[in-house]
Amino acid sequence: MTLWVFGYGSLLWNPGFEVIEQVPARLSGYRRSFCMRSIHHRGTPEEPGLVLALDASDEAHCDGLALAAAPDQSEAVLAYLRERELVSAAYLERLLPLALEDGRDVTALVYVIDPDHVQYCALDLEEQAQIIAQAVGGRGPNSEYLYNTSAHLETLGLPDAELQWLDKRVRELTA
Pairing mode, if any, of strands 136-137 and 4-7? Predict the structure, then answer.
């Protein structure tokens, strides 16, 4: 059986595993948002950054990529993703239905935010921009994460209005 993974943030441009098929996909019931404080990858415990997470919202949807792992690599990919995504337990691992652009429906591994976790936050876009413009973590500047994700969504034909606004605003703040 094929392991499908939903990419909506850094998995779009840095999956970290061999992808044998990628298809634009929609996840219903969640929205992409900078609602997770990053204390490892894009910030520190003293100066947290922000990373994207999927925040549950009944009327929302999130467009991204369904990424298929090679069947003989499923266990290794799952172990890798758990090490990468579950570093602070702010994400919850779920198997959720995705609607693929080509008409198929698949069940995919999806990492969503735990709204009860201490790293969860709900900030307006200006607050997000101010944090993203300043934060730096173990994987580099928070702004780089934003720019890469926004650019890849645009290239895929899946622009995200909030990310586009943040991209422009953070560039203004860091100019």
Answer: unpaired
Q: Are 43 and 137 in contact (CB under 8 A)?
A: yes
121: nearest Cα among 38, 9, 23:
38
Radius of gyration for the alpha carbons in the chain, expressed in angstroms and rounded: 15
Going from N- to C-terminal start, the domains of the chain cover: 4-174
Active site residues: 85
Q: How far apart (Å, rounded) are the C-alpha atoms in residues 108 and 30? A: 14
* CATH 3.10.490.10 assigned to 4-174: yes
36 beta partners: 51, 120
Q: What digits encode the pLDDT tens for the residues 51-89?
A: 999 999 999 999 999 999 999 999 999 999 999 988 788
Look up residue 113 and give its two tokens.
């935010």
Which residues are paired to 60 by β-bridges? none
